[in-house]
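Sequence in, structure out. Go.
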Amino acid sequence: MILSFFDQFMSPTHLGIPLIALALSLPWILIPTPTNRWLNNRLLTLQAWFINRFTQQLMLPINLGGHKWAVLLTALMLLLITLNLLGLLPYTFTPTTQLSLNMGFAVPLWLATVIIGMRNQPTAALGHLLPEGTPVPLIPVLIVIETISLFIRPLALGVRLTANLTAGHLLIQLIATAAFVLLPMMPTVAILTSVVLFLLTLLEVAVAMIQAYVFVLLLSLYLQENV
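Output:
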């Protein structure tokens, strides 16, 4: 049976039951929970420092009204980072390579920011559709363009995360397959290919973390416009 390179992105099932729910719940099991002790271990201390620093940087440009989103955005970033990094391990499934899952994250959160803007400051929210000083003949065209760009935002969020992770996993699999095939024929080339594979894996670790941060950062920017 010849397997396609894209088979790794299929949602795994066991006895007809999709295992994507297990993959989504696994990160919360791996993340250590704080204790009631006065002194925590190094892992908990590092985790608390990272979460505090990230939350401070994320909420810095946002008004006080948007600070209610701090827990939600921080939890979302931790979930995405953990899912992306676990997907780089062998024989694992990456749920964030599924466009449906990423759109399920992007659309409700983007829609919530738009609804908040329409409810709190409808004039300013609608004013984003028409830049100040626009010539009168261009007003209808710009309103259509800005409306389309507004509704493309959640699609861009989901597609960006899906495309970056999918491309990285495909590239890793292609180079690994090339190194395995070249090993008996040209060992030197296979070793060089393995070095490239190792460097690419390090790059994908960085991409996994950066893409999770970019996803949450763009959501915070959308929130900033509407708060």
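Check: The chain has one domain: 19-226. Residues 19-226 form one domain.
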